[in-house]
Task: inverse folding
């Protein structure tokens, strides 16, 4: 019997203005909320088996840092990029985000072997969605 290899995870912690509105937005994109790690201050959004977005109310987020919390609608600190399995899935996720109250951002990037788009969530955090041709990745 072989042990399952360790898979490193990423937890993206994002300050939000309205936790309920943010939870609604991300569930409308098709993601689930893990209630075990969610309460009135935070919501654990399961993006995949190894990616979790932690949506934190601004007062709760402030307990983790001494730095000023930026207004993501005016300043950029991070671009979160998710992979997609096809060009159509890129478009599908961005269109869901816009329909759920997000904003399409940046220009469509179409380089043939790579295709990407982006959206801003209701708090202004930018999420890029990118597909890359597997043949191009293999070299």
Result:
């Amino acid at each position: 019997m072989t042990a399952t290899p360790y898979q490193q995870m990423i937890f993206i912690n994002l300050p939000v203005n309205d936790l309920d509105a943010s939870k609604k937005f991300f569930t409308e994109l098709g993601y689930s909320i893990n209630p075990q790690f969610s309460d009135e201050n935070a919501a654990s959004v399961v993006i995949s088996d190894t990616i979790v977005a932690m949506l934190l109310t601004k007062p709760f987020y402030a307990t983790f840092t001494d730095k000023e919390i930026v207004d993501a609608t005016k300043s950029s600190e991070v671009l979160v990029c998710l992979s997609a399995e096809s060009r159509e899935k890129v478009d599908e996720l961005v269109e869901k985000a816009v329909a759920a109250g997000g904003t399409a951002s940046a220009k469509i990037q179409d380089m043939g072997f790579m295709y990407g788009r982006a959206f801003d969530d209701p708090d202004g955090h930018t999420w890029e969605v990118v597909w890359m041709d597997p043949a191009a990745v293999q070299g």
About this structure: Strands lie at 10-16, 32-34, 42-46, 51-57, 79-83, 103-110, 114-120, 126-132. The chain has a mean pLDDT of 95. The helical segments are 19-28, 58-61, 87-99, 134-138.
